[in-house]
Design goal:
Helix content is about 50%, strand content about 10%. It is of the alpha/beta class and about 240 residues long. The strands form two sheets. It has a four-stranded parallel β-sheet. β3, α5 and β4 form a beta-alpha-beta unit.
Length: about 240
């Protein structure tokens, strides 16, 4: 009798394990089928956003069905959205992030459908742009001190130890675009043909910022809010 009971319990556990595995497979398939698109402007954002949102703020891309897509520059955004409207995924939720450094291009997008959520980077304006507008780009979504630390960890700056961090920091204006003034500083140091890697900077910023900047806290909140309004329906 005991052996029969043990076998029934073992069979029940096996059935339960199989059901859980089937549910897990179905959940992942449903999440992908009902995905939410997160559009980013470039390679730097594609790398950094995943680190910031998943590792820093606990946004599970797989569980929430988030697909991150790089539209490779603000000039391509209008065409990207037009093409998305022609696909079978055109009704899926889309978060479109963009650097807040060219307001005319964003205004030119016109009215978007309710499923498209425009999200500027940084969330709040930080610097004064050459045309007098206030806004920023990816780099300005972080503290100026973090950006400077990231610069001095790039291969370019390490190859040029003559660049004095203290002097650079003293000359740095946190109210002006971070990357552009870095390039101007390098030109004055006779390094006009060299540009610090934006991808290297982005990776350092994403992995070393503490706490996560307001921009990404807000973005994580938007992702969770959209998914709460449009939960994934698991199809077994």
């Amino acid at each position: 009798m005991s052996d029969r009971t043990d076998k029934l319990e073992a069979d029940a556990l096996l059935d339960l394990r199989c059901e859980l595995e089937q549910w897990d497979i179905a959940s992942k398939a449903s999440a992908l089928e009902q995905c939410m698109y997160l559009f980013v402007e470039g390679e730097s954002e594609e790398l950094a956003f995943r680190i910031l949102l998943e590792e820093g703020l606990g946004v599970n891309f797989e569980e929430l069905g988030i697909v991150i897509a790089n539209y490779n520059g603000i000039g391509n955004l209008k065409h990207t959205l037009r093409l998305m409207n022609l696909t079978l995924s055109h009704e899926r939720p889309m978060i479109v992030t963009f650097d807040d450094d060219n307001k005319s291009l964003i205004a030119g997008l016109g009215q978007q459908p309710d499923n498209i959520h425009l999200f500027k980077i940084p969330y709040s304006p930080v610097v004064t742009l050459p045309n007098g507008d206030v806004g920023g780009s990816f780099e300005e979504s972080f503290e100026a001190s973090d950006f400077i630390d990231a610069l001095f960890e790039t291969a370019l700056f390490k190859r040029n130890p003559q660049i004095n961090k203290q002097q650079f920091t003293a000359s740095f204006d946190s109210k002006l675009p971070f990357y552009d003034q870095t390039v101007k500083y390098l030109r004055k140091q006779n390094l006009q043909n060299y540009l610090p890697s934006k991808v290297e900077i982005a990776e350092y910023l994403a992995t070393h910022c503490d706490p996560e900047p307001e921009t990404y806290v807000k973005l994580a909140g938007l992702i969770r809010r959209i998914r709460s309004d449009k939960p994934i329906q698991v199809k077994i």
